[in-house]
Design brief:
about 130 residues; mainly alpha; Multidrug-efflux Transporter Regulator, Chain: A, Domain 2; two-stranded antiparallel ribbon; 6 helices; 2 strands; DNA binding; transcription regulation; MerR_fam; DNA-binding; Tscrpt_reg_MerR_DNA-bd
Length: about 130
């Protein structure tokens, strides 16, 4: 391992995550094991930073850890994967659309409950009633 490797702190900072996230991704196998310094400290190479940024961006886009694991496998050189990745992305879009529809429905219900609320003390509160239904 070269002396110019990144520490875990610098790796985490450069990828916009915290130290525990790096350790967690290593523990579950999303991040490859880093080399070690003679003193036993982790030493990361640019490939680790690239992988960590890939994982972080995938998480930002809402992909789960299993999907990210598959995307990493599909990103390996020599693997013809565009169709499979496209299908994964399309499935994810379908899931996002369903969540958006659920959130819009939730917003309508809450807006109506708030609109039905009086400003003062009421015997029955529409928001409480909606939560209990």
């Amino acid at each position: 391992m070269s002396g110019r490797g990144l520490t875990i702190g610098r790796l985490a900072e450069s990828a916009g995550v915290n130290l525990e996230t790096v350790r967690y991704y290593e523990r579950i196998g999303l991040m490859p094991e880093p080399g070690r310094t003679p003193g036993g400290h982790r030493s990361y190479e640019p490939e680790h930073r690239q992988r960590l940024r890939f994982i972080r961006r995938s998480r930002e886009l809402g992909f789960g850890l299993d999907a990210i694991r598959r995307l990493i496998a599909l990103s390996e050189p020599g693997v013809e994967t565009c169709r499979e990745v496209r299908d994964m992305a399309q499935d994810h879009i379908t899931s996002i659309d369903a969540k958006i529809a659920d959130l819009q429905r939730l917003r309508r219900v809450l807006r109506q409950a708030v609109a039905d609320c009086s400003d003062g003390v009421a015997v029955r509160c529409p928001v409480i009633e909606e939560l209990g239904s």
